[in-house]
Amino acid sequence: MTELRDLNTSGYSPDWCPGCGNFGILTALKRALVQLKLNPKDVLVVAGIGCSSKLPQWINTFGFHGVHGRGLPVGMGAKIANKKLHVIVIGGDGDVFGEGMNHFIHSLRKNINVTLLVHDNQIYGLTKGQTSPTTMHGDKTSSSPGGNMDDPINPIALAVAQRTSYVARSFSGDMDHLTNTIADAIAFKGFAFVDIFQVCVSFNKHNTFPWFKERIYDLQKKGYKPDNQEKAFKKSLEGWDKIPIGVFYKEEKPLYEEEHPVLKRTPLVKQKIDNISIKKLMDKFC
Fold first, then answer.
1. What is the pLDDT of residue 10?
2. CA nearest to 278, candidates 266, 286, 267
3. Of 42, 44, 85, 216, whose CA is between 20 and 30 Å from 33?
4. 122 backbone φψ class: left, alpha, beta (φ>0; ψ -120 to 50)
5. pLDDT tens figures, 88-144
6. pTM
7. ∠ CA(155), CA(160), CA(164), 5° rounding?
8. Phi and psi dihedrals of 151, rounded to 5?
9. Hey, is 246 helix, strand or coil?
10. What structural domains and CATH numbers belong to the chain?
Protein backbone atom coordinates (compact mmCIF):
# COMPACT_ATOMS: atom_id res chain seq x y z
CA MET A 1 0.00 0.00 0.00
CA THR A 2 1.21 3.48 -0.85
CA GLU A 3 2.10 5.58 2.16
CA LEU A 4 2.51 9.32 2.51
CA ARG A 5 6.27 8.96 2.83
CA ASP A 6 6.30 7.25 -0.59
CA LEU A 7 4.86 10.44 -2.09
CA ASN A 8 7.39 12.82 -0.55
CA THR A 9 10.29 13.90 -2.72
CA SER A 10 13.32 13.49 -0.46
CA GLY A 11 15.69 16.43 -0.15
CA TYR A 12 13.28 19.09 -1.43
CA SER A 13 10.82 21.33 0.41
CA PRO A 14 8.19 23.70 -1.02
CA ASP A 15 9.24 27.34 -1.19
CA TRP A 16 5.72 28.75 -0.98
CA CYS A 17 5.12 31.62 1.42
CA PRO A 18 4.40 30.48 5.01
CA GLY A 19 0.64 30.16 5.36
CA CYS A 20 -0.01 29.69 1.63
CA GLY A 21 -3.04 27.56 0.82
CA ASN A 22 -0.95 25.52 -1.61
CA PHE A 23 0.49 23.55 1.32
CA GLY A 24 -2.98 22.27 2.16
CA ILE A 25 -3.67 21.26 -1.44
CA LEU A 26 -0.37 19.38 -1.72
CA THR A 27 -1.07 17.51 1.52
CA ALA A 28 -4.65 16.73 0.50
CA LEU A 29 -3.50 15.39 -2.88
CA LYS A 30 -0.98 13.09 -1.20
CA ARG A 31 -3.62 11.86 1.23
CA ALA A 32 -6.09 11.29 -1.59
CA LEU A 33 -3.59 9.16 -3.52
CA VAL A 34 -2.96 7.11 -0.37
CA GLN A 35 -6.69 6.80 0.24
CA LEU A 36 -7.11 5.42 -3.28
CA LYS A 37 -4.09 3.09 -2.78
CA LEU A 38 -2.47 4.31 -5.99
CA ASN A 39 1.13 3.48 -6.77
CA PRO A 40 3.18 6.65 -7.48
CA LYS A 41 4.48 5.10 -10.73
CA ASP A 42 0.89 5.04 -12.05
CA VAL A 43 0.31 8.76 -11.46
CA LEU A 44 1.30 11.72 -13.64
CA VAL A 45 1.00 15.27 -12.29
CA VAL A 46 1.11 17.97 -14.99
CA ALA A 47 1.38 21.70 -14.33
CA GLY A 48 1.82 24.98 -16.16
CA ILE A 49 3.39 28.09 -14.64
CA GLY A 50 2.68 29.78 -11.31
CA CYS A 51 3.12 29.24 -7.59
CA SER A 52 0.69 26.32 -7.63
CA SER A 53 2.30 24.82 -10.70
CA LYS A 54 5.50 24.11 -8.80
CA LEU A 55 3.62 21.28 -7.06
CA PRO A 56 4.94 18.41 -9.27
CA GLN A 57 8.42 19.15 -7.88
CA TRP A 58 7.33 18.12 -4.39
CA ILE A 59 5.39 14.93 -4.94
CA ASN A 60 7.06 11.64 -5.81
CA THR A 61 5.06 10.74 -8.92
CA PHE A 62 5.77 11.24 -12.59
CA GLY A 63 5.59 14.95 -13.32
CA PHE A 64 5.63 17.43 -16.17
CA HIS A 65 6.24 21.15 -15.69
CA GLY A 66 5.06 22.90 -18.83
CA VAL A 67 4.45 26.47 -19.95
CA HIS A 68 1.81 28.98 -18.94
CA GLY A 69 -1.75 27.77 -19.52
CA ARG A 70 -0.75 24.56 -21.31
CA GLY A 71 -1.17 21.94 -18.61
CA LEU A 72 -4.44 20.56 -19.96
CA PRO A 73 -3.34 19.71 -23.53
CA VAL A 74 -0.20 18.01 -22.17
CA GLY A 75 -2.20 16.04 -19.61
CA MET A 76 -4.83 14.99 -22.11
CA GLY A 77 -2.20 13.94 -24.61
CA ALA A 78 -0.54 11.79 -21.96
CA LYS A 79 -3.85 10.18 -21.05
CA ILE A 80 -4.66 9.40 -24.68
CA ALA A 81 -1.20 7.89 -25.11
CA ASN A 82 -1.41 5.75 -21.98
CA LYS A 83 -4.88 5.36 -20.51
CA LYS A 84 -3.57 3.39 -17.51
CA LEU A 85 -2.01 6.55 -16.08
CA HIS A 86 -3.94 8.56 -13.52
CA VAL A 87 -3.40 12.05 -14.93
CA ILE A 88 -3.83 15.06 -12.64
CA VAL A 89 -3.46 18.56 -14.05
CA ILE A 90 -2.52 21.36 -11.63
CA GLY A 91 -2.88 25.09 -12.29
CA GLY A 92 -3.77 28.40 -10.70
CA ASP A 93 -6.68 30.67 -11.59
CA GLY A 94 -4.38 32.78 -13.77
CA ASP A 95 -2.78 29.76 -15.42
CA VAL A 96 -6.03 27.92 -16.21
CA PHE A 97 -8.62 30.70 -16.55
CA GLY A 98 -6.28 33.35 -18.01
CA GLU A 99 -3.55 32.07 -20.29
CA GLY A 100 -5.20 28.65 -20.52
CA MET A 101 -8.87 29.62 -20.81
CA ASN A 102 -9.16 28.36 -24.39
CA HIS A 103 -7.84 24.94 -23.33
CA PHE A 104 -10.11 24.94 -20.27
CA ILE A 105 -13.28 25.60 -22.28
CA HIS A 106 -12.54 22.93 -24.86
CA SER A 107 -11.44 20.41 -22.23
CA LEU A 108 -14.91 20.69 -20.73
CA ARG A 109 -16.34 19.58 -24.08
CA LYS A 110 -14.23 16.44 -24.30
CA ASN A 111 -14.78 13.72 -21.74
CA ILE A 112 -11.17 12.55 -21.44
CA ASN A 113 -10.49 10.78 -18.13
CA VAL A 114 -8.30 13.50 -16.57
CA THR A 115 -8.57 15.33 -13.23
CA LEU A 116 -8.12 19.11 -13.16
CA LEU A 117 -7.31 20.76 -9.80
CA VAL A 118 -7.31 24.58 -9.88
CA HIS A 119 -5.63 26.50 -7.05
CA ASP A 120 -7.96 29.50 -7.06
CA ASN A 121 -6.58 32.34 -4.90
CA GLN A 122 -8.12 35.14 -7.01
CA ILE A 123 -4.76 36.79 -7.69
CA TYR A 124 -1.54 36.37 -9.68
CA GLY A 125 0.75 35.38 -6.81
CA LEU A 126 3.97 34.44 -8.57
CA THR A 127 4.23 37.80 -10.34
CA LYS A 128 3.46 39.84 -7.20
CA GLY A 129 -0.28 40.32 -6.95
CA GLN A 130 -1.85 41.41 -10.20
CA THR A 131 -5.57 41.08 -10.97
CA SER A 132 -6.49 37.57 -12.13
CA PRO A 133 -9.61 36.34 -13.98
CA THR A 134 -11.27 35.47 -10.64
CA THR A 135 -10.35 38.65 -8.71
CA MET A 136 -13.49 40.14 -7.20
CA HIS A 137 -14.92 43.34 -8.65
CA GLY A 138 -13.51 46.40 -6.86
CA ASP A 139 -10.54 44.65 -5.29
CA LYS A 140 -7.35 46.69 -5.35
CA THR A 141 -4.26 44.94 -6.69
CA SER A 142 -0.86 45.97 -7.99
CA SER A 143 -2.32 46.15 -11.51
CA SER A 144 -5.65 47.71 -10.45
CA PRO A 145 -4.78 50.24 -7.69
CA GLY A 146 -8.12 51.95 -8.21
CA GLY A 147 -10.06 48.70 -7.91
CA ASN A 148 -10.73 45.88 -10.38
CA MET A 149 -13.21 47.12 -12.98
CA ASP A 150 -14.10 43.66 -14.35
CA ASP A 151 -16.48 41.07 -12.99
CA PRO A 152 -14.78 37.76 -12.14
CA ILE A 153 -15.44 34.74 -14.29
CA ASN A 154 -17.43 31.90 -12.77
CA PRO A 155 -15.61 28.65 -13.65
CA ILE A 156 -18.18 26.45 -11.90
CA ALA A 157 -21.01 27.97 -13.96
CA LEU A 158 -19.00 27.54 -17.16
CA ALA A 159 -18.37 23.87 -16.40
CA VAL A 160 -21.99 23.12 -15.42
CA ALA A 161 -23.32 24.93 -18.51
CA GLN A 162 -21.16 22.63 -20.64
CA ARG A 163 -22.46 19.52 -18.82
CA THR A 164 -18.96 18.61 -17.70
CA SER A 165 -19.06 15.11 -16.26
CA TYR A 166 -17.75 16.10 -12.79
CA VAL A 167 -17.80 19.62 -11.32
CA ALA A 168 -16.81 20.36 -7.72
CA ARG A 169 -15.40 23.03 -5.44
CA SER A 170 -13.44 22.72 -2.20
CA PHE A 171 -11.35 24.82 0.19
CA SER A 172 -7.71 24.39 1.17
CA GLY A 173 -8.60 25.20 4.79
CA ASP A 174 -10.85 22.13 5.13
CA MET A 175 -8.44 19.20 4.88
CA ASP A 176 -10.99 16.39 5.19
CA HIS A 177 -13.36 17.87 2.63
CA LEU A 178 -10.53 18.64 0.21
CA THR A 179 -8.94 15.19 0.53
CA ASN A 180 -12.23 13.40 -0.03
CA THR A 181 -13.19 15.65 -2.95
CA ILE A 182 -9.85 15.12 -4.71
CA ALA A 183 -10.06 11.35 -4.14
CA ASP A 184 -13.61 11.27 -5.50
CA ALA A 185 -12.58 13.30 -8.56
CA ILE A 186 -9.61 11.05 -9.35
CA ALA A 187 -11.71 7.91 -8.93
CA PHE A 188 -14.47 9.28 -11.17
CA LYS A 189 -14.47 7.91 -14.72
CA GLY A 190 -14.50 11.03 -16.84
CA PHE A 191 -13.18 14.59 -16.95
CA ALA A 192 -13.27 15.89 -13.37
CA PHE A 193 -12.85 19.57 -12.51
CA VAL A 194 -12.29 20.77 -8.93
CA ASP A 195 -12.01 24.51 -8.25
CA ILE A 196 -10.15 24.90 -4.94
CA PHE A 197 -10.34 28.16 -3.03
CA GLN A 198 -6.99 28.85 -1.37
CA VAL A 199 -5.53 31.95 0.20
CA CYS A 200 -2.58 34.02 -0.96
CA VAL A 201 -1.33 35.44 2.33
CA SER A 202 1.15 37.75 0.61
CA PHE A 203 -0.94 39.51 -2.02
CA ASN A 204 -4.65 38.90 -1.42
CA LYS A 205 -5.67 40.52 1.86
CA HIS A 206 -9.39 40.27 1.10
CA ASN A 207 -10.08 36.56 0.55
CA THR A 208 -8.42 35.29 3.74
CA PHE A 209 -8.88 32.07 5.73
CA PRO A 210 -11.36 33.74 8.14
CA TRP A 211 -13.22 35.30 5.19
CA PHE A 212 -13.77 31.87 3.62
CA LYS A 213 -14.48 30.12 6.92
CA GLU A 214 -17.36 32.52 7.61
CA ARG A 215 -18.97 31.88 4.23
CA ILE A 216 -18.45 28.34 2.96
CA TYR A 217 -20.98 25.57 3.50
CA ASP A 218 -21.03 21.94 2.36
CA LEU A 219 -23.63 21.17 -0.33
CA GLN A 220 -23.76 17.47 0.45
CA LYS A 221 -24.31 18.10 4.16
CA LYS A 222 -27.38 20.12 3.15
CA GLY A 223 -28.75 17.12 1.25
CA TYR A 224 -27.93 18.48 -2.20
CA LYS A 225 -27.68 15.88 -4.98
CA PRO A 226 -25.48 16.68 -8.01
CA ASP A 227 -27.68 15.00 -10.62
CA ASN A 228 -29.58 17.94 -12.13
CA GLN A 229 -27.91 20.44 -14.45
CA GLU A 230 -30.45 23.21 -13.92
CA LYS A 231 -30.19 23.00 -10.12
CA ALA A 232 -26.42 22.83 -10.36
CA PHE A 233 -26.32 25.98 -12.48
CA LYS A 234 -28.46 27.87 -9.97
CA LYS A 235 -26.12 26.76 -7.17
CA SER A 236 -23.12 27.90 -9.17
CA LEU A 237 -24.57 31.43 -9.28
CA GLU A 238 -24.84 31.84 -5.51
CA GLY A 239 -23.06 35.00 -4.39
CA TRP A 240 -20.19 35.68 -2.02
CA ASP A 241 -22.25 35.86 1.18
CA LYS A 242 -22.71 32.09 1.23
CA ILE A 243 -20.28 30.00 -0.80
CA PRO A 244 -21.17 26.37 -1.56
CA ILE A 245 -18.46 23.72 -1.68
CA GLY A 246 -18.87 20.12 -2.70
CA VAL A 247 -19.96 18.36 -5.89
CA PHE A 248 -22.23 20.56 -8.02
CA TYR A 249 -22.78 18.21 -10.94
CA LYS A 250 -21.92 14.63 -11.83
CA GLU A 251 -22.88 12.65 -14.91
CA GLU A 252 -21.45 9.43 -16.26
CA LYS A 253 -20.82 9.72 -19.99
CA PRO A 254 -18.84 7.72 -22.55
CA LEU A 255 -15.14 8.55 -22.52
CA TYR A 256 -13.53 10.19 -25.52
CA GLU A 257 -10.84 7.54 -25.56
CA GLU A 258 -13.48 4.78 -25.55
CA GLU A 259 -15.40 6.17 -28.53
CA HIS A 260 -12.53 7.24 -30.78
CA PRO A 261 -12.16 4.56 -33.52
CA VAL A 262 -8.37 4.39 -33.14
CA LEU A 263 -8.00 4.85 -29.39
CA LYS A 264 -10.69 2.35 -28.40
CA ARG A 265 -8.65 -0.50 -29.89
CA THR A 266 -5.54 0.17 -27.84
CA PRO A 267 -3.81 3.25 -26.40
CA LEU A 268 -1.29 5.05 -28.58
CA VAL A 269 1.64 3.84 -26.51
CA LYS A 270 0.92 0.25 -27.59
CA GLN A 271 0.11 0.87 -31.25
CA LYS A 272 2.66 -0.32 -33.79
CA ILE A 273 4.24 2.19 -36.12
CA ASP A 274 6.61 -0.17 -37.97
CA ASN A 275 4.70 0.01 -41.25
CA ILE A 276 3.92 3.70 -41.18
CA SER A 277 5.65 5.82 -43.81
CA ILE A 278 5.28 9.53 -44.40
CA LYS A 279 7.11 9.44 -47.74
CA LYS A 280 3.94 9.84 -49.83
CA LEU A 281 2.85 12.76 -47.68
CA MET A 282 6.24 14.41 -47.91
CA ASP A 283 6.30 13.93 -51.68
CA LYS A 284 3.17 16.06 -51.98
CA PHE A 285 5.00 19.00 -50.47
CA CYS A 286 8.22 18.59 -52.47
1. 54
2. 286
3. 216
4. left
5. 999 999 999 999 999 999 999 999 999 999 999 988 888 887 888 888 887 788 888
6. 0.92
7. 100
8. -75, 145
9. strand
10. 4-284 (3.40.50.970)
